[in-house]
Amino acid sequence: MKSLSFVIFCILFLGFNFAVNAQLCGKYETALIITDEENKPIEDVVVKIIPLLKENGLSNSKFVRDKENPSRFSITFNEGYQVRGDYRINIFAKGFLTAEMQIRFPHCQRQKFEFKLIKTLSQTSSQRMSLIGTVFDAEGSAIKDAKIVATDPEGNKYQQTTNGDGIYSLLLPLGYYKIEASAKSFCPTIFTKYKIVDSTYGKMNLDFVLEVASSQIPCNAENK
Fold this sequence. Notes:
The chain is mainly β. The chain has two domains: about 25-120, Immunoglobulin-like; about 125-224, Sandwich (Immunoglobulin-like), CATH 2.60.40. The chain has one helix and 16 strands. A five-stranded mixed beta sheet has the order 10-9-12-13-16, with no helix packed on it. It has a four-stranded mixed beta sheet with strand order 3-4-1-7, with no helix packed on it. Strands 8, 11, 14 and 15 form a four-stranded mixed beta sheet that branches. The longest helix is centred in the first third of the chain and has 24 residues, at about 1-25. About 20% of the residues are buried.
């Protein structure tokens, strides 16, 4: 009798936890804000999701364009549905360079990425390279919502924030940049003269490690 009561208790307890989690999470989404360099919507945008492993799959899910905000594309998941593995997102639009980013869909976490597509005006101006990386703390944990800012010698800034896995992606013209990574409660790290080159791999990688800010030891941005 006691065993039966214990089983019933466990079932009720697990059911209660599932109901609470469902209320806390509900539907969650990943959103993309896609514009040109003047923050204007782009027509005929195509977003493709490519699994990096064959066993990964999204059950034919896709990003849908918002009717009221044509710059916004989103993919929505229901509570309990977890997308596993890493994916590459490619964004195509006629007259623009293709944008690419590797992401993961964290369960029950909303995330948003902003993309500014670059027009293909000439062979010279179309030479761009994807800079991809991860921001970690000193313990090796990924830092969410860290800000990455790349500044060229003319003062033009390109920026992005990290997703739930600490990953960021920037599409940059070739040349030299000052690149800074910063996050709340952490000391920033700066690369003062980082060169973006025409990599044979089609992308470049730059990771950051941020130290926790302390009231006893003032932050001095680490220059590299």
